[in-house]
């Protein structure tokens, strides 16, 4: 069931973290971003595996809540989303030293747009963190994202005390991102 949180994003994140075995958090730019759409399609394909392992999947966006149905329709993502138009959660996670989510100026985002980031963690530790650093080479933060499937495989292995499945997680190319958008 889709849940949307718009008030007190930090409290909601802390509650999820306290109640779950682990959290799998994906920050995305907005419904208009084809790379974000591809990423959320990939996340939806992993949602059941993650929840079966006692995890909680949540996306975070600074985009206005009224745009969320467009993203859900485009991606099939039906998990929880924290709508944080003021980027309060991103700022708090940075303050805590957990992850530094880039915030960029963008029309339609009065407090800035959170750029793509992934955070996987238990109550005790961060298992994986990645946040894009927007540049001309990655189309302002749009492309060059790590595979969520490979992130999940490594996170799952680490939580089970096993050897990592992937020594490194390569970034997806422009073509891979477009293929993911088109073919899922």
Q: Which key phrases capture this entry?
A:
6-stranded mixed sheet, two-stranded antiparallel sheet, 184 residues
What do you see in this structure?
The chain contains six helices and eight strands. It has 184 residues and is of the alpha/beta class. It has a six-stranded mixed β-sheet, sandwiched between helices. Strands 5-6 form a two-stranded antiparallel sheet. Helices cover 37% and strands 22% of the residues. Helix 2 crosses helix 6 (174-183).
Number of strands: 8
Widest sheet: strand ordering = 1-4-3-2-7-8
**Radius of gyration from CA coordinates:** 15 Å
Straight-line N-to-C gap: 21 Å
Main pleated sheet: 6 strands, mixed
% residues in beta strands: 15-25%
Helical fraction? 25-40%
Layout of helices and strands:
Blueprint: E1 4-5, H1 9-19, E2 22-28, H2 34-52, E3 55-61, H3 68-75, E4 80-83, H4 88-95, E5 103-106, E6 109-114, E7 117-121, E8 126-131, H5 148-159, H6 174-183
Parallel strand pairs: 1-4, 2-3, 3-4
Antiparallel strand pairs: 2-7, 5-6, 7-8
Helix pairs in contact: 2-6
Task: Provide a brief overview of the structure.
By secondary structure, this protein is of the alpha/beta class.
